[in-house]
Amino acid sequence: MVIHKFPKIMFNKLAIGRCQSSSCVIDVPKGHFSVYVGENSLKRFIVPLAYLKHPSFQTLLNMSEEEFGYAHPMGGFIFPCREDTFNQLVENIQLT
5 to each of 9, 12, 21, 45, how far by Cα in Å? Predict the structure, then answer.
């Protein structure tokens, strides 16, 4: 599994259905959580818990709850947006 580090975010490609057990959380560092982003195929992002305080991120969390609920078999939130949209959101959060 390849992990690419970005400033304050780590990115990891993940095929749908690959993470089926709770053992998948081992690769998430303390103070972070995983989210899955994409329309046709999902990519996994590991983001800092501090992002939960940002209003734009909270909006995305609410959209995720409305569309998917909070019970995710892959162990992370699924965000209903394109990957480039999520990357722009992360860049905006890092600038504030």
Answer: 6, 9, 24, 10
Taking every pair of Cα atoms in the chain, the longest distance, rounded to a whole number of angstroms, is 35
Task: Tell me how far apart the alpha carbons of residues 24 and 89 are, in angstroms, rounded to a whole number.
Answer: 25
Q: 33 pairs with which residues across the strands?
A: 47
**Residue 4 three-state SS:** strand
- How far, in whole angstroms, is CA 18 from its chain's centroid? 15
**Measured distance CA(19)–CA(91) in Å, rounded:** 27
Q: pLDDT (tens digit, 9 = 90+) per residue, 33-70?
A: 888 898 888 899 999 999 999 999 999 888 888 887 77
Which of 13 and 42 is assigned the larger pLDDT? 42
77, 61 in Cβ contact below 8 A?
Answer: yes
**CA distance linking residue 74 with residue 38, whole number of Å:** 14
